[in-house]
Amino acid sequence: MSESYVKEDSSYTIGVEFGSKIVNVGGKSVKLQIWDTAGQERFRSVTKGYYRGAAGALLVYDITSRDSFNALSTWLADTKSLASPNIVILLVGNKKDLEQEREVTFLEASKFAQENELMFMETSAKTGECVEEAFLKCSKSILAKIEVGELEPDRLGSGIQYGDSKLRHLNREGQSSRQSDCLCRM
């Protein structure tokens, strides 16, 4: 989902794929390390280790697949039990371009997100609609948690690093220091 476009004949993720993406959030360059764990049950034992040290997670389901949506409870439980308690989680309904094949309503997914205290949005990886916004939304939330002290970049396993180790310190008044580069693991 992190590519700027998806080809018609693109393959599904098998196992785990890794990529990185740089987004600009409030004048700061944020490099995201993205681990796509496919969400397939047969890879579940392999993917559990990728939650540790993640600052954010995008739980993506297919709006045209009831089974995909129903599996969210399991993936959310894994995320909450294996990741930091302050991990930022964004629920993402994908394939927004296939509205006529929708099996999961926007309202139903929105309710699930609200009940589980998740952010929520829908995207289309095929057309690129709202894909960039999903990464920006998650990144903004991670940076906001850093600024209010809910996420501590200096804590081992936080999933966050600043590009310059001299700039890791955040001002206690809630204003960030002059750092311009941040690395977040998702």
From TrEMBL:
Keyword GTP-binding recorded: yes
PROSITE patterns in the cross-refs: RAB, RAS
Any one GO molecular function term: GTPase activity
Lineage: superkingdom: Eukaryota
Name of the protein: Ras- protein Rab-4B
Keyword GTP-binding on entry: yes
Signal peptide: none
Family under the similarity heading: Belongs to the small GTPase superfamily. Rab family.
Gene (UniProt): RAB4B
Xref: Pfam families: Ras
Coiled coil regions, renumbered to chain: none
SMART domains in UniProt: RAB (SM00175), RAN (SM00176), RAS (SM00173), RHO (SM00174)
Membrane spanning stretches: none
Alphabetical UniProt keywords: GTP-binding, Lipoprotein, Nucleotide-binding
Organism for this UniProt entry: Polyplax serrata
Gene3D superfamilies, per the entry: P-loop containing nucleotide triphosphate hydrolases
